[in-house]
Amino acid sequence: MVKAVVLGAAGGIGQPLSLLLKTNPLISELSLYDIVNTPGVAADLSHIATPAKVQGFLPADDGLKKALTGADIVVIPAGVPRKPGMTRDDLFKINAGIVRDLATGIATTAPKAFVLVISNPVNSTVPIVAEVFKKNGVFDPKRIFGVTTLDVVRASTFVSEILGDLSLAPSIKVPVVGGHSGVTIVPLLSQSSHPLPTSLKGDALDKLVNRIQFGGDEVVKAKDGAGSATLSMAYAGAEFAEKLLRAAKGEKGIVAPTYVHLSADKAGGDAIKKEIGKDLDYFSAPVELGPEGVVKINSLGKINEYEQKLIQAALPDLATNIEKGASFIDAPK
Ligand code: NAI
């Protein structure tokens, strides 16, 4: 029996993500929470002929607490998305408070749940969740994840386009590490499961890296004020949730890049710090998942000079974003 909860379930990501979770046979109960419209979304989804029992909650009558009671996995896509010209960091002002309050609800009601943070800026919102959990004395770094899967999904798709065969996309694996915004997104293309043509270098390689780093902007621009990626994000969020649930059930060897506190696996985390040459608390790395969440933070593997430069370029922003999130919550260290 697995209870999944979506916080921000009536939004652009929340609705299709809830739909995908409703169709996941590993989930037996699905609670939808938002400040608006969840009764409607829940009623709609509840007619789908899959086992998960769906309920919707609003803030009134202790709705957040009711939604979260007994949760095994909580996904957070609550908050405002970007408009053209905005960076993810511009969202901090509004989303930091939303994430803090939702994290407080989780820490006090379902502290053992896996927490999957989608709300941007992920580089800062994950530290916010962690600090709230510390403040409540329930911090377990193995259970808090920043969802960077969309960057991985985009990398697979864009590489398949370069290889001229979209049918390869589902099987192409490219580790994407670092963080989740602009230059902090670092695709390790030299480790692609499907090697790129050797002719892809110079400007062409820069262009591909830039497209993976700023792919979100393509969507923001095309939506022209109506928000950012929602459908591809829902797909990516559901994929990561599925991996975590399979690993939680005991399936071995499931590895996915995700943004975690590096103490989740001390030895692995220390090795990452050495590889990047900086003592950061958080980093997105390939993580092996298991019943307790993080089993092992894997090495970044063989990194070429070009990728080492990308990593070095990511570190200053990443450090600033982490500090901004962590200092938003006044936790005793
Ligand atoms: P949206 O505006 O369509 O939906 C957000 C939902 O959150 C709305 O239904 C709203 O009512 C709800 N909400 C606001 N305050 C809340 C609160 N206190 N409690 C519960 N629900 C609350 O936005 P969209 O497009 O779904 O994006 C959501 C977030 O996901 C944004 O921060 C966006 O930047 C982020 N995002 C993250 C990605 C990633 O790769 N991690 C990719 C794309 C978007």
Automatic annotation (TrEMBL):
Q: What protein name is recorded for this chain?
A: Malate dehydrogenase
A single Gene Ontology CC annotation of this entry is: cytosol
Is NAD set as a keyword in this record?
yes
Output the PROSITE patterns linked to this UniProt entry.
MDH
Q: Which CDD domains match?
A: MDH_glyoxysomal_mitochondrial (cd01337)
Oxidoreductase found in the keyword field: yes
Q: Where does NAD(+) bind?
A: 8-14, 34, 95, 118-120, 233
Q: Which UniProt keywords apply?
A: NAD, Oxidoreductase, Tricarboxylic acid cycle
Q: How does it assemble?
A: Homodimer.
Active site positions: 180 (proton acceptor)
**Which of this chain's residues are annotated to bind substrate?**
82, 88, 120, 154
What Enzyme Commission number does this protein have?
1.1.1.37
Reaction equation(s) it catalyzes: (S)-malate + NAD(+) = oxaloacetate + NADH + H(+)
Q: Name one Pfam family in it.
A: Ldh_1_N
A molecular-function term among this protein's GO annotations:
L-malate dehydrogenase (NAD+) activity
Q: Which family does it belong to?
A: Belongs to the LDH/MDH superfamily. MDH type 1 family.
Q: Which GO terms describe its biological process?
A: malate metabolic process; tricarboxylic acid cycle
- Which residue intervals define the domain Lactate/malate dehydrogenase N-terminal in the entry? 3-146
Domain named Lactate/malate dehydrogenase C-terminal: residues: 148-328
